[in-house]
Amino acid sequence: SGRAEARTLAGPPAAAELLARAAALAATLPVTPSIAFIRVGDDPASESYVRGKAKKAVELGLHSHVYALPDDTTQADLHALIGTLNADNGVHGVLLQLPLPAHLNADAALACLDPRKDVDGLHPVSAGLLWQGQPGLRPCTPAGVMALLDHYRLPVAGQHAVIVGRSALVGRPLAGLLLNADATVTVAHRATPDLGTVTRRADLLIVAAGHAHLITPDMVRPGATVIDVGINRVPTEGGKARLTGDVHPDVAGVAGALTPVPGGVGPMTVAQLMMNTVQAAQNQTAQVQATQNQTGQNQVGQP
Ligand code: NAD
User: Fold this and answer.
1) 53 a catalytic residue
2) What is the CATH number of domain 139-265?
3) pLDDT tens digits, one per residue of 22-62
4) Rounded Cα–Cα distance for residues 33 and 272 (Å)
5) Quick check: CB of 216 below 6 Å from ligand 1?
């Protein structure tokens, strides 16, 4: 008799819980949270990602506006639009869809964002706050992974978490979130020799390498929880592309729990963006109210 298959950690129910929490928080606010998307050029994947995120925002009752800039947009044009959105009190979140065309500098553009509106959590201030363990806006995919673990009541504190990948978008911020949640964290990457020796130590293995089926069953400790962040497009015989993860499907015979691709981490990313937008709106309206209260107190001359 073989081992039982790993428990499937489906994204949609966990995403639904996160979206319901975002909607409940939005309902307590004096304003409708509003997000602006900036997309440059005509990369079909970026276009489809932005369409999906904007659609979800509207479904949730948030305000959403998409700025689709032409491929020949200059760095100055981009910074000017970000500056306008920073100054607009009616906009609570600004998302710059990456990648940008090669002639544009994404880091410079991200640094122009008002950190209070940085709903993708990629501004250097957001990254610093995360690393210092202070409150702030967190990158959506790593925060979505934490929400998924929470939804399925999977333990994090005291667990040995191994992350494969060290990008600013996924691996690095995930290391910060897991440390803040009291995991013991190892980060492996392209230059790690004998990856299997490292991944076999994981109670919690999170893979964000962008390499289809990098993780095979021999690289996983029996019973480990495995989170597959990878989204790889592999061609099929029919000439169409199929989506597959960084984890080989046979890992289901070894792991205790495993996220599917698609339908695992992907929906969490979008749901977390909605939560970040609502939280950004909450922070900005709380600041406005604090300023008004101060003014009010001064007017009545209280201490
Ligand atoms: P990236 O290319 O920026 O970073 C990949 C990281 O993996 C690098 O740090 C690299 O050192 C490491 N790596 C690559 N090959 C490796 C190997 N053979 N062994 C060990 N380490 C290796 O990619 P990214 O932006 O972090 O994205 C990673 C994957 O996650 C991609 O497939 C991407 O499409 C996917 N992704 C999914 C979501 C989602 O919503 N589910 C969001 C973002 C990214």
Assistant:
1) yes
2) 3.40.50.720
3) 999 999 999 999 999 999 999 999 999 999 999 999 999 99
4) 14
5) no
21-113: CATH superfamily: Leucine Dehydrogenase, chain A, domain 1 (3.40.50.10860)
If you write DSSP's letter for every residue of 15-58 in order, what string do you get? Answer: HHHHHHHHHHHHHTSSS--EEEEEEES--HHHHHHHHHHHHHHH
Q: Is 227 in the pocket of ligand 1 (CB under 6 A)?
A: no
For ligand 1, say whether the CB of 33 is within 6 Å of any of its atoms: no
User: How many angstroms does the Cα of residue 112 sit away from the middle of ligand 1?
Assistant: 25
Distance CA 71, CA 50 (A): 16
* CB distance 183 to 160 below 8 Å: yes
Q: Using CA atoms, how far apart are residues 190 and 107, in angstroms rounded to an integer? A: 22
This complex has an ipTM of 0.98
Active-site residue, 132 included: no
Reduce the secondary structure of 152-200 to three states and give it as a string: CCCCCCCCEEEEECCCCCCHHHHHHHHHHCCCEEEEECCCCCCHHHHHC
